[in-house]
Amino acid sequence: MTGLVGRAEIEAAASHLDGIVRRTPTIEPGVGFHDTPAHVVAKLELLQHTGSFKPRGALHRALTSEVPDSGLIAASGGNHGLAVAWVGRHLGVPAEIFVPEVSPPAKVAKLHALGATVHVVGALYDDALVACRARQLETGALDIHAYDHVDTIAGAGTIALEIDEQTGGVDTVLVALGGGGLASGLAAWYRDSGTRVITVEPETSQCFAAAVEAGEPVDVQVSGVAADSLGARRIGATNWLALQAHASPVTVTDTAIRSAQHRLWNELRLVVEPGGAAAAAALWSEAVEVSVGERVAVVVCGANCDPGDVVEPK
C-alpha cells in the first residue's frame, strides 16, 4: 500500500466526523447465533444516517476538500448517492446523483426526498459513472467517488476503530465488498494487527476475488440480488492496494444472501438489504471457517430495501 491510509489517517477522520455521523452500536446476539462456535458481534452500521455506512466516507471526503458552488456529484448504485445527497443537505450545497436502472425504487425515492437531482442512466453502476464524469466536466462539482479515494477509505475505516473500542478487539471481521471502500478502510485499520479481514462478495459479482486470482484488477460480470450495492465491475485501484495488504476474499450465493436477510429479520428483527446481509451469509453458509471462542465481528452495513422483501415467505 501501503502508506496511503493507516490508523493515523482513520483517527483523523474520526475527529472530523465526530458529532455528525452516528456511532452505531454493536450487539452480541448470544451463544449459538449463526449456528457457529464463534462469539459473534454484529456492528449495526445499517443504523447510520441514510441507512448504510456510506455517509462516513462521503462526508469525510467533502470535509477535506474545497466544495464549489456547484456542489457535489456522484455515481452510485443507491447507498452512496443517498450519502452524498445527505452530505449536500448537511453542508447546504446542491447534490447531483447518477444511478443505474438496477437501483431499487426505494433508494431513488429517498434520493429525491433528500433534495438531490437524480439521473437514472444505464444498466449498472459503471454506466452511471461514465455519465457522472461527463456531467462533472460541465459543472465543476466535487466528484465524490463511491469507493476509490483515500479520504473515503479513511472515513469508512472509522467503523473498525469503533469496533475495537466497543468490543475490546476481535479476531476476525467479516465485511461485504462491492467496489472496496468499506473493506479497504477495515483492512487499513487492521493491517498491522492480528485481526484478519475477510471480504464477502456474491458469486455473481466478485471483483476482488477475481483480482486476487488474476494478480491484478480485472473486469467481471455483474448480476444477482445484491448488484445495486455490491455490483462494481472492477475493484478500485486504491482499494486494490489496501486490500492486497490485509484481506482475504470469500464468495456466497444469492440463496445464502436471501437466507441471511430472512434470518436477520427472524432472529434480530433487522431489515437488511441483500448487500448488507452478505457478511452474515458467509458465516451462516460456512463460507468462512471459525473456531470455538473466536471473536468474530460481522458488519451489517445496509438497510435500504423494501421491508416486505426480508420476511420469510409462508
Please provide a written account of the structure.
With 314 residues, this protein is α/β, with parallel strands linked by helices. The chain is built from 12 helices and 10 strands. The strands form 2 sheets. Strands 1-2-10-7-8-9 form a 6-stranded mixed sheet, sandwiched between helices. Strands 5-4-3-6 form a 4-stranded parallel sheet. Strand 4, helix 4 and strand 5 (117-120) form a beta-alpha-beta unit. Helix 1 (7-17) crosses helix 6 (150-167) and helix 7 (181-190) packs parallel to helix 10 (237-245). It starts with 6 loop residues before the first helix and ends in a 14-residue tail after the last strand.
Portion in strands: 5-15%
| Overall mean pLDDT | 93
Using only C-alpha atoms, the radius of gyration works out to: 18 Å
Q: Regarding CATH, which class of the largest domain?
A: Alpha Beta
Count of β-strands: 10
Largest sheet: 6 strands, mixed
The CATH architecture assignment of the largest domain turns out to be 3-Layer(aba) Sandwich
- State the CATH topology of the largest domain: Rossmann fold
Cα distance, first to last residue? 49 Å
* Uncertain residue ranges: none
Helix/strand order: HEEHEHEHEHEHEHEHHHEHHE
Strand order of the largest sheet: 1-2-10-7-8-9
The coarse silhouette is globular
Number of separate helices: 12
Structural class: alpha/beta
Total individual domains: 2
